[in-house]
Amino acid sequence: MAKTELVFRKLKESIKDKLFHNKAVILYGPRQVGKTTLVNSILQELEKKVCYLNGDDSDVGEILAQPNVTKLEGIIGNADIIFIDEAQRIPEIGIIIKIIVDRIRNVQVIATGSSSFILSQSIKEPLTGRAFEFILFPLTFSELEAHTSLLEEKRNIEKRLIYGAYPEVVITPGDEKDLLSLLSGSYLYRDLFMLGTVSRPELLEKITKALALQVGSEISTIEIGQLVGADRNTVEKYIDLLDKAFIVFRLPALNRNVRNEIKKGKKIYFYDNGIRNAVLKNFNHLSLRNDTGALWENFCISERMKYLAYSKINAQSYFWRTTQQQEVDYIEESNNMIEAFEFKYNPKSKAKFSKTFLDSYNVKVTKVISQNNIEEFIS
Questions:
Q1: Residue 265: its pLDDT value, please?
Q2: Fewer Cβ in 10 A, N or C end of the chain?
Q3: Tens-digit pLDDT profile for residues 335-363
Q4: Nearest one of 179, 25, 7, 48 to 113, comparing CA atoms
Q5: Using one digit for the tens of pLDDT, what is the confidence trace for 247-289?
Q6: What is the reported pLDDT for 290?
Q7: For 283, phi and psi rounded to 5 degrees?
Q8: Which residues of the chain carry a pLDDT beneath 70?
């Protein structure tokens, strides 16, 4: 695999389309997914003067302290674009961006931030109505397929199920385990710790591990609380933080027509399989595992979520289950039409959709997703 800057990111053209419309462009995302690389590749294509500031530089916060129009104009100079990298580290960054957007004409703000940027309430209010927001995820199947070929990316599926698709992990074969161990350590939760939103770091790690063990299964926050020694509200709070930190996402149960449907159930999936496996410290090959089905389900649904986000498709996602254990892995509802999917890693495996479900809902499509047709579902 070549360097990540040569992998075309799907968000690139979407971001370029939003430049110079009198609004800031904010690029969120987990650490190490290539936000800086993506912005730099965009800037290289523009014949514009750029003022670059990095929040990791100790003096940047001092330079931008007590911001006002005159001070910011002096910093920006004759640049057309101000690129603020690692913006979450800069105090009052929301006010700074607001002043530039409102008061300094013909200057485009581009800022990148990890999860603490979006978690910080001090950011939200100043930027209301003043920014186009994007989220960058780990590399997608379709991005990698476009860079190599469909055949090669299908050959790499087992590797993606085990190691995921963080850019550095993908481009550094042989070092996957070490890189993922670093990513899944305290670095994974760094933003949550920095904001002081987590009072018990060891509890957060226990909850994350419990969620990793239950991928593909309906979770009970009461049971997780009993397992890790915490009350239900604390478990719910920490799951919400993990969601906002782009580590996991929730899939709710569909319940509408059937008396015995699970009403308030939810499943939890990881945005990246490699992070999930690193949390469990399990990088065994599929032949040595008993969770291949869960890995395949996590991969398919997380890739679908990235696809929906990048394509700006407004669809609702669910799973379906009854108290009699009838179940559909994944359901998507759009324009009052429902599509239902089952996930089978082995293309020879059969899946039967519940007659109760099919009779109760306006189901437009039913499909089994395996290695043979994965590209139809996620690209």
A1: 92
A2: N
A3: 889 999 999 999 999 899 999 999 999 99
A4: 25
A5: 999 999 999 878 889 888 999 999 999 999 999 999 999 999 9
A6: 96
A7: -115, 25
A8: 1-6, 115-122, 195
